Amino acid sequence: DDSPSARRQREASIREGSRRRESAAKGESRRFSFMSSAAEFNKLLIESQQNEKKKDEKKRKPRADKRNRLSSGTFSNLSGKDSRQALLSTYVTTNGSHCGKTALYITLVMGCALFLLGFIVGVGVLPVLVDDMVKSELIISPDGPCFSRKDGGMCPGSVQARYFLWNITNPNEYLQGSQPPELEEVGPFTYTSYEKVYNASFSQNKTMVDYDYTYFWEFSAQDSCEACQDPASSPLYTVNSAYLQVLNQAGGSETSLIMAFLPQVFSNLYEGLKATVATFATEDATEAELDALVFGQWANCSVLNDTVSSLTAYQAMDPYVPEVGAWRSANVDASFSSGLSAEVAKKLFGKQSEVDPLDPFPDPLSFIGAAMMMPDADFSALSGVPSDQIATLKGYFGYVIGTYGTMTLTAIVGPPLGDTSTGLIIKRSAKDLLEGWQDPLMAGFMPGMNMSYNLGFHMDLLDSIDEQMASGVIDSTHPFVFNKEALTGHYDPTEIGEVLSFDGMRNIQHGNGSRAVFGRSQDPSTGLRFYDFRNQQDFTLFHEGLQRSLVFLRDADTTVVRKIDTLHFTLDPSAAMTCEENEMQCTYADSMDGAWNISSVYLAESAGSFPQWYYQGGAEEDTAQLTFNPENRREWGMDIEPRLGVLLKYAMPFQYNYFVAPTDVLHQTIWTPNGTNAPGGAWIPNFYYDLMVEISAKDAIKLRQVLFLLKVVTLGLLCGFPMFGIIMVVFSTYKLFFSLETIKREKQLKEKLRTRASTVQVNRESMKMKQGGKRDVESQGHKDPLNRHHYSFTNTPKSSLH
Predict the structure, then answer these.
(1) Element at 333 (helix H, strand E)
(2) pLDDT higher for 42 or 171?
(3) From CA 463, how far away is CA 784, in angstroms rounded?
(4) How far is CA 55 from CA 52, 98, 786, 800, in A?
(5) Spacing of C-alpha 522 from chain mean position
(6) Higher pLDDT residue, 704 or 489?
(7) I need a labelling partner for 707 at 20 to 30 A (CA). Which of 16, 412, 522, 643 fits?
């Protein structure tokens, strides 16, 4: 039928058939496409198993870059797992490298561990290690510096000191009494000192050490002033502290000093009389018989009936000492009879056969001194000398002192201001004053001691002192050897160098009583060590020159020494306070403002003070006139690096001053001030020294390196490790849970899961339509090939999927 309606029906039927054929073709295409994907997956699975087998054969770790199974997997591969776990187990970065969740979790754990480790080690472990290191260096031990055998007792390092001498520019006018002394500061003369330790003895538990020590000195011309390069060519006029010391030991006056010589004088007189009377004795005369003749001649001139001074041979020994009988005949009456007994002569000449232990005057010097100074009645009662004979005895002693004694002392002292003379004011070179010289008066007053004197350098005795100390011939009783007992810090490091005794004294007598020896040691062997000073506010130092304890206070601000931060400590102002200012706070009985009384230490009326100090108790014309450079003066202070306890800078200048007054024999006209609180004399500065303990530039660099290393390690542990740990924690957490890449791939996974599920559902529906829906695609007898693929996949060992 060719009608229009028939044509339309045929066209519609053709279109419907075409549509159905296209639909069927599309269904078959989908089915075969899915089957093709399953075949590809099985192929990849087989390759994976083969790769695993090769790895086992080669015994090596699994490869890091596995193939992307996500793009070729099936729904059956992923449907049994959580979507997030599926994503993490098959995570692939943009560059194709595998980074599993295990590595990220390890990174997370390591970050937390580093964070905790930094704080634990930086706060708990490192400070303990550093503290132990510091203690091992500071604690005094038999194997440490100055005490070990390899050091031989010599302390490593040195202390440098600048010495300034006060030169009296008008010595003649001062001695004549017409002008006050004018003093000029000369220096610095710089010396380097070294300490050597002897006879060190540690307690059984190593908490205390007892040792002897002395100092050695070397002149450093390069560090001295331009005019100080040759100390031997620098003549100076200054106070002679040796003369003052001898006077003080003899009783405080030159008469007392002469009296101290009288026993030697009368010993010489005895020998002269004995030689004279022996010519009148029989050849077989005994010693007792000769002594009887000597005593008779001395008391009454009974042997010669005249004085021995009448003999020509005796006159050759002029000046000579007459017998007491001759003195009476010349000064009292014409009689030679003094009335003094042989017992008095025996005591005067030191010829007693036995010494009575109850005798108050057992030796010639005490007998002469008592006769001259005690009231007649008291001396008569104690000595047994009849009171009517005491006047004769005193007159005779006074004559000997005023004539023979004065001439002897004048001869020993020498002409005023002579090159080799002694006296209150002397002329010596700077080398003599600093390095030691032999004072004629001290040599005569203390014969046999060979005491080199003035400022204590005793450089001419150093070798002999060292040898004698090593051999045990001398010990700390020698004037230039000292003894100290100190704590080592072995029990408590804060007690390192605490002094327990000095020169055998645990208590030292001062003007207002006895004070215990305490404070930190000052000498290098046990002193100058400061453990854990970061929070220290003050400490006490035992000053050997003053022989007393001084308190140092911490400044509010820190200081910098050679680019190193330090704590600065200065002398407590109350340490120099006198009893007159505040009796309650006065530790020692000092009578001058700004000075310490050290008379008991140096055996002469002396005072220690700050540099360039002089007594200002009256008008300008009544005080010593000083010319000095104010820039040479430095304040007392210590700069300590608190972490390691190292003393970087140490300033403790100290000036010696002596009280000089007219004497009764040789220096009667010396100048004295008027209208001051120091009547009868004047305080004259002698010299001062300025200790210059400062870390060298080389050692400062090493110390800065150590401190910098400690800071780097500490900051690394406290900041670096925790910061790196935080970075690791943040990175791993971000990658695991919050990165855009993770979120994007998780989203893609979900989309693919939905797509694969939809594809499987469509194919299943298509097969049902073809089979007419008469069979159950999931039945045991007619399994869907897709399900067979599913079952074969799920039965594959899991190890082959990784």
Answers:
(1) none
(2) 171
(3) 116
(4) 5, 17, 32, 12
(5) 8
(6) 489
(7) 522
8 phi, psi to nearest 5 deg: -65, -40
**C-alpha–C-alpha distance, residues 618 and 620, integer Å:** 7
Coil, helix or strand for 213?
A: strand
Among 269, 273, 264, which residue's Cα sits nearest to residue 409? 264
Q: Are 645 and 530 in contact (CB under 8 A)?
A: yes
385-404 mean pLDDT: 87
Euclidean distance between CA atoms 139 and 141, whole angstroms:
6
Do β-strands 482-487 and 452-453 pair in parallel, antiparallel, or remain unpaired?
Answer: unpaired
Exposure string (b/e) for 243-274, b if CB count within 10 Å is 16 or more? Answer: bbbbbbbbebebbbbbbbbbbebbeebbebbb
Structure token digits, residue 486:
């100190």
Nearest-angstrom CA–CA distance, 446 and 464? 19
Positive or negative torsion for Cα 742, 748, 754, 756: negative
Write down the pLDDT at residue 561: 86
Model pLDDT, residue 363: 85
**C-alpha to C-alpha distances, 777 to 755, 769, 786, 795, nearest whole angstrom:** 21, 11, 10, 20
The span from the CA of 702 to the CA of 483, in Å, is: 34
Question: How far, in whole angstroms, is CA 690 from its chain's centroid?
Answer: 17
Its sign, for the CA torsion 457, 463, 466, 468, is: negative
CB 686 within 8 A of CB 678: no
Contact 198/470 with Cβ under 8 angstroms? yes
Alpha-carbon distance 443 to 356, whole Å? Answer: 31
How does DSSP assign 736-801, residue by residue? Answer: III-HHHHHHHHHHHHHHHHHHHHHHHHHHHHHHHTTT-S-TTSSSS--HHHHHHHHHHTS-GGGG
Residue 318, C-beta contacts closer than 8 angstroms, at least 6 positions apart: none
- pTM given for the model: 0.71
Q: Please list, residue by residue across 477-511, b when 16 or more beta carbons sit within 10 angstroms of its beta carbon and e when fewer do.
A: ebebbbbbbbbbbbeebeebbbbbbbeeeeebebe
Give dist(CA 42, CA 181) in Å, integer: 119
| CB within 8 Å of 349: residues ≥ 6 apart | 266, 267, 269, 270, 294, 295, 364
Q: What are phi and psi of 429, to 5 degrees?
A: -80, 160
d(Cα 528, Cα 647) in Å, to the nearest integer? 6
For range 598-610, the mean pLDDT: 83
Interacting residues of 795 by C-beta distance below 8 A, sequence separation 6+: none
The DSSP code for 61 is: P
The structure tokens listed for 311 are 């003999």
Strands 182-202 and 625-627: parallel
* Rounded (10°) CA dihedral 32, 38, 41, 47: -90
Peptide bond into 188 cis (omega under 30): yes
Give the phi and the psi of residue 388 in degrees, each rounded to 5: -75, -10
Name the phi and psi angles at 571, rounded to 5. -65, 135
Out of 170-184, 339-353, 399-413, 467-481, the most confident range is 170-184
Q: Which pLDDT score, from 0 to 100, does residue 768 have?
A: 60
* pLDDT confidence band for 44 (50 / 70 / 90): low
Compute how many other C-beta atoms are within 10 angstroms of the C-beta atom of residue 72: 14
The CA distance from 147 to 151, in Å, is 7
What is the pLDDT, as a whole number, of residue 643?
A: 81
Residues 443 and 453: their CA atoms lie apart, in Å, by 10
Q: Which residue type is seen at 459?
A: M
Token duo for residue 299: 């008391």
Count of CB atoms situated within 10 Å of the CB of 113: 13
d(CA 106, CA 267): 103
In 443-481, beta strands by DSSP E: 452-453
